């Protein structure tokens, strides 16, 4: 029978995800020569060529992709076994490391933790790590977090065998206007009504993309007056009458200013979709399942 070495299979999967032996070695805290040696041994054990040269780099052979296709099922089963063993040894009060983007921490994670603490039975020990939405899956793949909150725009496809995805909410984007804005009290405000305004959003990254995409869908390209990424800075600029901004409702609940009017957009209201993700198979663990359940209940309050 062919010998399947899980440790070496994980190295092969990391090479697939990172592209080069050097990047794989850095991700796994190994030397490049150790990575190459482990993969050479794996190829010998399996009796197939796993790598072939491509210029100065290497690429995975068709046999390697076939091996990884089956290995993903093994990894998922090991996650389930680990989750069940944790539940058996520690009950439902295990540790769950959550990686979440900045607005999700106060809006979703903290209320979910409070919800778990209010229950009669002991809840999991939730450890929070703030991370950019695009970084969440890197942390999840590396095993540095157990559950990640991200935006659907940065999520892998539902067919990715490494992750299980759970849609949480479609977060509406409201528009922040200075209190003295001529449309602050206008009925049935639409995003298209604000095409001539000066806008505030980040110079790059997901929020820049979300703002520009929403405005373009409404039929115009926003004129960027100021570049800011943090909601405190953005709303301070709006309050000073220096521009307007799209603000997710998750953020506006936590950030309120007397000189800023938050208006719900009507026909062309954009939304950003928030998802939770775990390594495939880990969702069956009691502690992770409880945290997912609490997050889902909190997310429903935004609908």
Automatic annotation (TrEMBL):
One Pfam family of this chain: LysR_substrate
Gene3D superfamilies with a match to the protein in the record:
Periplasmic binding protein-like II (3.40.190.10), Winged helix-like DNA-binding domain superfamily/Winged helix DNA-binding domain (1.10.10.10)
Q: Which branch of life, at top level?
A: Bacteria
Signal peptide extent: none
Show the InterPro entries listed in the entry.
ArsR-like_HTH, LysR_HTH_N, LysR_subst-bd, WH-like_DNA-bd_sf, WH_DNA-bd_sf
User: What PANTHER family does this protein map onto?
Assistant: LYSR SUBSTRATE-BINDING, TRANSCRIPTIONAL DUAL REGULATOR HCAR-RELATED
Q: Which GO terms describe its molecular function?
A: DNA binding; DNA-binding transcription factor activity
Its Gene Ontology cellular component terms are: protein-DNA complex
Extract the CDD domains matched here: HTH_ARSR, PBP2_LTTR_like_6
Q: Which organism is it from?
A: Streptomyces nanshensis
Keywords per UniProt: DNA-binding, Transcription, Transcription regulation
Q: What are the residue boundaries of the HTH lysR-type domain, all occurrences included?
A: 4-61
What name goes with this protein? LysR family transcriptional regulator
Q: What protein family does this chain belong to? A: Belongs to the LysR transcriptional regulatory family.
């Amino acid at each position: 029978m062919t010998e399947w070495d899980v440790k070496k299979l994980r190295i092969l999967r990391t090479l697939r995800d990172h592209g080069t032996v050097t990047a794989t070695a850095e991700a796994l805290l190994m030397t490049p020569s150790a990575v190459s040696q482990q993969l050479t041994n794996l190829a010998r054990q399996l009796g197939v060529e796993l790598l072939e040269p491509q210029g100065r780099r290497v690429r995975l052979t068709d046999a390697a992709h076939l091996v990884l296709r089956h290995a993903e099922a093994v990894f998922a089963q090991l996650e389930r076994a680990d989750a069940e063993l944790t539940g058996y040894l520690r009950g439902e009060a295990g540790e769950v490391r959550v990686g979440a983007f900045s607005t999700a921490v106060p809006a979703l994670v903290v209320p979910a933790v409070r919800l778990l603490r209010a229950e009669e039975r002991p809840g999991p020990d939730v450890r929070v790590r703030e991370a950019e939405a695009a970084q969440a899956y890197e942390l999840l793949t590396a095993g540095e977090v157990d559950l990640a909150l991200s935006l659907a725009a940065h999520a892998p496809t539902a067919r990715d065998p490494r992750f299980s995805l759970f849609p949480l909410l479609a977060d509406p984007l409201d528009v922040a206007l200075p209190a003295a804005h001529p449309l602050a009290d206008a009925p049935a405000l639409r995003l298209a009504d604000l095409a001539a305004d000066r806008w505030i959003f980040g110079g790059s990254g997901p929020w820049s993309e979300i703002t520009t995409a929403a405005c373009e869908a409404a039929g115009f390209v926003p004129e960027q007056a100021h570049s800011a990424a943090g909601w405190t800075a953005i709303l301070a600029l709006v309050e000073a009458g220096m521009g307007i901004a799209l603000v997710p409702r998750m953020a506006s609940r936590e950030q309120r200013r007397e000189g800023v009017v938050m208006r719900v957009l009507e026909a062309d209201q954009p939304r950003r979709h928030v998802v939770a993700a775990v390594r495939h198979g880990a969702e069956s663990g009691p502690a992770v399942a409880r945290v997912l359940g609490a997050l889902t209940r909190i997310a429903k309050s935004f609908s």
